């Protein structure tokens, strides 16, 4: 069966032009004028773009005493509804747990996915077993990224020696390390102090994780990556201090990537001074929302290319789950939703305001991450031979975001009441129409795992660091004379 998307304007990361797109099965087979096929999708007045890729989700994740509430079914249905056709979730071994065992758990959950997906593997502890399993994960399991938490002390956090060892292993295997960059020791000590002083509300979560803890950890992760000779990808870059560290490293020739979230780009710290406990707690995530100045820095980074990817860190908890933290902000499950809203919110606040061009929009929502993860042009492209993961984007369709008609399983939306202009007319996942305007036609289990092969890319351009493998011993003749 062939499908033709007719009368639209194709927008990719580098081109805008009028052409039809023909799909046979799950692939794009022809691009050109006046194509015909068994089924026609009308794209008049629309842009035909690569489906979005959200490289940062936590679906059905055990975390802070509970599970995130969107699973692979509701999460990927939400994704498709908003024009995203692939997600990359995190397989998270408990410290001490085998990486392969954790991966099996994630494999089992993901069978319900409505769109294609992949996994990042987290390194939450270090041992010879982890060292060995990393090779199996890369070579046999098709995973080329390892996530490291510099925060969540006593739980997921790894120390610098562990991170250095893991980064060196990544360099050997052609894998890319990912880092949650917040100084977990400082966060833990500030949290304890705030609680002792009676600051137990959700606003104290933000006080415990200022931009400095993120800037420090981002710098540290980059320097450790430089010594290990590997690239590094900083997840949820939320502040100028972190962005500045990334810019500086890139200017030196290092392969360092930064990923702002749609939430940090569009919601600010004033959300935490809302007197409604639930309102503030629903927005508790790490890192927390920042000031307008930080937001401006992130937008500038996307425009100039010093930040490359917009993600969500979709990790949705219901109001009832958030209330585990009444009386103690450190027990509020960290995380916010955004999968369904990332593309419409970024179009509305980026393209419609002139902060991003349409081509930049495609780059930061799809193509750049496809290249970073080594799945381009299977994903992230409108090209013959690419997967038919396509969004037919209607720039004039509007809606007001509301939890009442969202796909996510939770009972609120952090963007509640915000109007967006720019929404999918159709979303196709490997050739199958999953969304037609507001009609949901997703197929549970349609999604397939996307293998990602290793990439050998060093990151040392102007680095001055060189390991001294056999340090020279200085012969000392005696105790030096003291005094003058
Ligand atoms: N931050 C969150 O807010 N939730 C999930 C994990 C994370 O790092
Ligand atoms: Zn420590
Ligand atoms: Zn994180
Ligand atoms: Zn995350």
Strand order, sheet with most strands? 3-2-7-17-18-19-20
The CATH topology name reads TIM Barrel
Looking at the overall shape, the CATH architecture is Alpha-Beta Barrel
Q: Assembly type of the shown chains?
A: single chain
Number of discrete helical segments: 14
Q: Write down the overall geometry.
A: globular
Low-pLDDT residue spans:
none
Radius of gyration: 23 Å
Helix content percent band: 25-40%
Assigned CATH superfamily: Metal-dependent hydrolases
CATH class: Alpha Beta
Structural class: alpha/beta
> Cofactors and ligands present?
dihydropyrimidine-2,4(1H,3H)-dione, zinc ion
Let me know the average pLDDT: 96
* Spatial separation of the terminal alpha carbons: 93 Å
- Main sheet overview: 7 strands, mixed
Task: State which percent range the strand residues make up.
Answer: 15-25%
The figure for the number of domains is 1
Instruction: Give a count of the beta strands, DSSP E runs of length 2 or more.
Output: 20
Walk me through the structure.
- The protein has 484 residues and is an alpha/beta fold.
- It has one domain (51-379, 396-420): Metal-dependent hydrolases (TIM Barrel).
- The chain is 31% helix and 21% strand.
- It is built from 14 helices and 20 strands.
- The protein has helices at 72-81, 99-110, 128-139, 160-173, 184-196, 202-207, 211-228, 240-251, 262-266, 277-282, 292-304, 319-322, 342-351, 358-372; strands at 2-6, 9-11, 16-18, 20-24, 27-32, 39-42, 47-50, 52-57, 62-63, 66-67, 84-91, 116-122, 145-149, 176-180, 232-234, 256-258, 390-400, 419-429, 432-436, 439-440.
- A seven-stranded mixed sheet has the order 3-2-7-17-18-19-20.
- Helix 3 (128-139) runs parallel beside helix 4 and helix 4 (160-173) crosses helix 7 (211-228).
- The radius of gyration is 23 Å and the shape is globular.
- The N and C termini lie far apart (93 Å).
- Dihydropyrimidine-2,4(1H,3H)-dione binds at residues 58, 180, 285-286, 313, 315, 334-335.
């Amino acid at each position: 069966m062939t499908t033709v998307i007719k009368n639209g304007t194709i927008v990719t990361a580098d081109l805008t032009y009028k052409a039809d797109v023909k799909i046979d099965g799950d692939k794009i087979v022809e691009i050109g004028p006046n194509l015909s096929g068994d089924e026609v999708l009308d794209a008049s007045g629309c842009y035909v773009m690569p489906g979005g890729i959200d490289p940062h989700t936590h679906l059905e994740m055990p975390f802070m005493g509970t599970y995130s509430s969107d699973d692979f079914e509701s999460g990927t249905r939400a994704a498709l509804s908003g024009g995203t056709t692939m997600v990359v979730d995190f397989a998270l071994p408990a410290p001490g747990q085998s990486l392969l065992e954790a991966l099996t758990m994630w494999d089992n959950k993901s069978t319900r996915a409505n769109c294609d997906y992949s996994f990042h593997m987290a390194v939450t502890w270090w041992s010879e077993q982890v060292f060995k399993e990393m090779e199996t994960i890369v070579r046999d399991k098709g995973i080329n990224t390892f996530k490291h938490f510099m925060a969540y002390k006593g739980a997921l956090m790894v120390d610098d020696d562990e991170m250095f060892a893991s980064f060196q292993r990544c360099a050997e295997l052609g894998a890319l390390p990912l880092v949650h960059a917040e100084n977990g020791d400082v966060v833990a000590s500030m949290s304890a102090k705030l609680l002792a002083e009676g600051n137990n509300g959700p606003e104290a979560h933000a006080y415990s994780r200022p931009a400095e803890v993120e800037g420090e950890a981002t710098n540290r992760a980059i320097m450790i990556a430089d010594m290990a000779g590997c690239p590094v990808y900083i997840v949820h870059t939320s502040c100028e201090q972190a962005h500045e560290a990334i810019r500086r490293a890139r200017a030196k020739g290092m392969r360092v990537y930064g990923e702002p979230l749609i939430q940090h780009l569009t919601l600010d710290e004033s959300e935490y001074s809302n007197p409604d406990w639930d309102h503030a707690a629903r927005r508790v995530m790490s890192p927390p929302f920042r000031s307008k100045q930080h937001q401006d820095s992130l937008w500038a980074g996307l425009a100039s290319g010093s930040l490359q990817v917009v993600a969500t860190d979709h990790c949705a908890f219901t109001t009832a789950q958030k209330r585990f933290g009444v009386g103690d902000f450190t027990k509020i499950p960290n995380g916010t939703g955004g999968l369904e809203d990332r593309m419409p919110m970024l179009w509305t606040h980026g393209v419609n305001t002139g902060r991003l061009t349409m081509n930049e929009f495609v780059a930061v929502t799809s193509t750049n991450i496809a290249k970073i993860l080594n799945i381009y042009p299977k994903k992230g492209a409108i090209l013959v031979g690419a997967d038919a993961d396509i969004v037919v984007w209607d720039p004039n369709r509007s809606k007001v975001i509301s939890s009442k008609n969202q796909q996510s399983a939770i009972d609120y939306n952090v963007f509640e009441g915000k109007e967006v202009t720019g929404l999918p007319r159709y979303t196709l996942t490997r050739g199958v129409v999953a969304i037609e305007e507001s009609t949901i036609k997703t197929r549970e289990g349609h999604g397939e795992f996307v293998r990602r092969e290793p990439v050998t890319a060093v990151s040392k351009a102007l680095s001055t660091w060189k390991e001294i493998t056999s340090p020279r011993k200085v012969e000392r003749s005696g105790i030096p004379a003291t005094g003058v």
